[in-house]
């Protein structure tokens, strides 16, 4: 089916964004870049999906896969890995597991042979509290959904139902300790009902070109 001029222009935007960033934009980012409403972007996505130009990935309606062969990888790069697209957590909604969030901040392509788990998601790292473990500011932590953790594991945790963080987990008799991997930061201690384990970190995607930088922990 032929595309309208507006649909073709939007597809060109998605293509260029993906080639530049290695991921698809969020609804919020696309709306801001193009100076239109979220509703207009959602309508364009639906129209392109009906015409077979893009697909929504699995249960994550904001995770987009461009179906045209020349759109699935950045220019000049060969993808021999059988990549899979993972959603990046944007705004965390209280009371919901991170992998079930409705608000995504784009997506990233990783090697599907290395990362095979169900419902994997990515959490963007802010700050340098985990740099000794090789997790740096701006990285994407690839997480396997879990609601438990073993002592010493690096996990994604939701604190007070609103703040997401990645730290090393230790269960004590009367509290949970979250240990940074940076001597400049203090150990964080919480009562059991103050936090929820959301996932184990199984890999890291290094910026600014995450498409070809995924590695397992």
Mean pLDDT, rounded to whole units?
Answer: 78
Number of DSSP strands?
12
Count of discrete alpha- or pi-helical segments spanning 4 or more residues: 3
Q: pLDDT under 50 segments (min length 5)?
A: 69-81, 208-215
- Which percent range describes the beta-strand content? 25-35%
Largest sheet: 10 strands, mixed
Terminal CA distance reads 44 Å
Global Rg? 19 Å
Give the overall silhouette.
elongated
H/E element sequence: HHHEEEEEEEEEEEE
Question: Which range best describes the helical content: under 10%, 10-25%, 25-40%, 40-55%, 55-70% or over 70%?
Answer: 10-25%
Structural class: alpha+beta
Please, could you describe this protein's structure?
The protein is an alpha+beta fold and 217 residues long. 18% of the residues lie in helices and 33% in strands. It contains 3 helices and 12 strands. It has helices at 5-21, 27-34, 38-50, and strands at residues 54-57, 60-66, 83-89, 104-111, 121-124, 140-145, 154-159, 163-171, 176-179, 188-190, 195-205, 214-216. The strands form 2 sheets. Strands 3, 4, 5, 6, 7, 8, 9, 10, 11 and 12 form a 10-stranded mixed sheet that branches. Strands 1-2 form a two-stranded antiparallel ribbon. Strand 7 and strand 8 (163-171) form a beta hairpin. Helix 2 packs across helix 3 (38-50). The longest helix has 17 residues, at 5-21. The radius of gyration is 19 Å and the shape is elongated. 31% of the residues are buried. The model is unreliable at 69-81 and 208-215 (pLDDT under 50).
